[in-house]
Amino acid sequence: MEIKNLAVFCGSSTGTDSIYIENAEKLGEELANRNRTLIYGGAQVGCMGAMADTSLRYGGSVVGVIPKKLKDVEIAHEQLTELHVVETMHERKSKMAALADGFVALPGGAGTLEEWFEVFTWSQLGYHVKPCGLLNVNGFFNPLIAMLDHTIEQGFMNKNYREMILIASDPKELLEKMDSYSPSYTAKWT
Fold first, then answer.
1. How large is the angle between the packed helices 110-124 and 89-99, nearest 10 degrees?
2. Which residues contact 101 (CB under 8 A, 6 or more apart)?
3. C-alpha span between 168 and 52 (Å, rounded)
4. What is the sign of the dihedral through the CA atoms of 155, 158, 159 and 164?
5. Contact call for residues 62 and 33 (beta carbons, < 8 A)
6. In the 3-class helix/strand/coil scheme, how is 116-154 assigned residue by residue?
């Protein structure tokens, strides 16, 4: 499965360690070098902006999707290949999902997690067969991964769903995992 358009969910903040911005930039560069389109939340600030700027600097195609209400708050990036201004967060997520061949979360806050978990849940339910990955920079997602393992141990999630999550700490490695992803579907209620 070749990923031509990758939706990336990440922070509109920079985090407390420069490693977060550095890896957002590495992913942006890697996407441009692989001639992949970056689909993201459309902001010019934080990790979001750094990733978009780097992808553009390396000749990449970058598509932003931002709700009107956040256009000024997140400071919409006006130099993108395309910028879609939508009415709601629901429209933002729907548009990003329709444009993307796969999904990745970088470190971020509640919005990042919510957006990624929605597309991951859709994958579990068979609404799409697109890969869902976590760029585990600086061990950021280790507590989340432990929580998912706990969820399995307690009988609230099938272990096959956990195996659907592609995890790497390096952007190149994660993109390679996504390219070699083979979708599988486990019926939720069996």
1. 50
2. 1, 2, 3, 4, 5, 6, 130
3. 20
4. negative
5. no
6. HHHHHHHHHCCCCCCCEEEECHHHCCHHHHHHHHHHHHC
Give the whole-angstrom CA distance, residue 118 versus residue 50: 24
- Cα angle 39, 115, 178 (rounded to 5 degrees) comes to 55
Question: DSSP state, 4?
Answer: S
- Per-residue pLDDT, 23: 98
Strands 132-135 and 37-40: unpaired
Helix-helix angle 18-33:46-57, to 10 degrees: 30
Which string of DSSP letters, residue by residue, matches 61-85? -EEEEEEHHHHHHTTB-TTSSEEEE
Go through 63-95 and write b for each residue having 16 or more CB atoms within 10 A of its CB, e for each that does not: bbbbbeebeeebbbbeebeebbebeebeebbeb
Element (H, E) at 38: strand 37-40
pTM of the model: 0.94
Those residues with Cβ within 8 angstroms of residue 43's Cβ, 6 or more apart along the chain or in another chain: 12, 49, 64, 66, 70, 74, 75, 76, 77
Q: Is 5 in a helix, a strand, or coil?
A: strand
Whole-angstrom Cα Rg for the chain: 16
Give the tens place of pLDDT for each residue, 85-141: 999 999 999 999 999 999 999 999 999 999 999 999 999 998 999 999 999 999 999
Cα(88)–Cα(70) distance, rounded to whole angstroms? Answer: 9
